[in-house]
Specification:
The complex is a heterodimer of chains A (180) and B (247).
Chain A (H helix, E strand, L loop, with lengths): L14 E7 L3 H13 L5 E7 L15 E7 L3 H11 L11 E6 L11 H10 L4 E4 L4 H19 L7 H16 L3
Parallel strand pairs in A: 1-2, 1-3, 3-4, 4-5
Helix pairs in contact in A: 1-4
Chain B lengths: L8 E2 L16 E2 L10 H27 L9 H44 L6 H67 L1 H30 L8 H8 L9
Antiparallel strand pairs in B: 1-2
Classes of the chains: A alpha/beta (180), B mainly alpha (247).
Subunit structure (chain A): Component of the CENPA-NAC complex, at least composed of CENPA, CENPC, CENPH, CENPM, CENPN, CENPT and CENPU. The CENPA-NAC complex interacts with the CENPA-CAD complex, composed of CENPI, CENPK, CENPL, CENPO, CENPP, CENPQ, CENPR and CENPS.
Pfam families (chain A): CENP-M
Organism (chain A): Mustela putorius furo (European domestic ferret)
Amino acid sequence: MSVLRPLDKQPGLNTATILLVGTEDALLQQLADSMLKEDCASELKVHLARSLPLPSNMNRPRIDLIMFVVNLHSKYSLRNVEESLRHVDATFFLGKVGFLATGAGRESHCSVHRSTVVRLARTYRSPLLFCDPEVDGFRVPVAQRLVRMLQICAGHVPGVSALNLLSLLRSSENPTLEDL
Amino acid sequence: MEKQPGKQAATEPADSGAGGGEGEPPQVAGAQAARPEDRLTLLLRLRAQTKQQLLEYKSMVDATEEKSPEQILQDKQVEAKIEDLENEIEEVKIAFEMKKLALDRMQLSTALKKNLEKNNPRTSVLMDNMKHILKLNKLIMKSHQESWDLEEKLLDVRKKRLQLKQASESKLLEIQTEKNKQKDDLAVMENSDKIKAIQQNLQMEIQITTVIQHVFQNLILGSKANWAEDPAFKETVLQLEKNLTMI
């Protein structure tokens, strides 16, 4: 299947699956480990991929949340993410996609400007998170946020849907986007 | 107690682009955190989850049923349309929250009513509170009324002051115009030709009288008569001192 579609399979009982797409394997692995260390009532499954499309021979569960990880230090990761975005169905962007930008702390090494990522997130109407995975203090809260988002996107939180979360997240982003 | 299967992590190695090699996914067992959970709690939680997921699928089906126009919209139009839809979502959410609030209030009031009917209404603390609230509300209304009256009075006084100011302004204006008129009249009068002619005649008459007087005086002096004895002569001679132009 060349295009990822949400809700195309039956959900596993009490499981939530997140797909992390990014070029840096070590980074993704670190994030995955932090996420799995979190206390969560449901089972978490973390899939890592360097880029989309995913090979279709795998029997993988329904993907609830896709996080595109962009490293601000390398333009290649941004291009990779932009390429992969084309293989995602439009209905995924109703709250089940997020962008994660790493390396914003070391301004001197940033070859991708922050506003580029912000604009990307704004075009796709998806939330943007920042993370510096080397610093342990940053990694844990981001992992917690991701776990919570994943739970909501998988439908494990009664009363809150992915779209609901999206509109909740949006109102806090907009004021900062006005000065772009 | 049933132990839950721990969290698993499945990692897939790099699949670079289309046509890349397919690798075997090594299964990495993540940390096993056994979570002791009551069976009933688990079932309830699963029930809630399934309900939520069912809701999501249903809404997805409903969304795909409604056919949207297939025309290719331009970027700006698409953005505008997306923003409109987002605003719609927000409005629906707000309306929902308001309705929930209203519903909660109604439920609260009925529960309160039932509670009151159950307990003895006379001695309940709730009744005391409500009576206190009513008393305070009456006080509030009274003080509102008083402040309103005072404001009215203030307004009246201010209005009167304004009226007085306006009246005094008009009066002063009148006075000024009158004064100006008088000044103009005076100026006109002074510059009138008649007065000039009269003044000239007066001057000429005075001069003639002076000349005649001088003639009489010289006559009297020249005749060597004793003018000091006759009062009429005295007066004529001594008139030399008086300056007739001042009369």
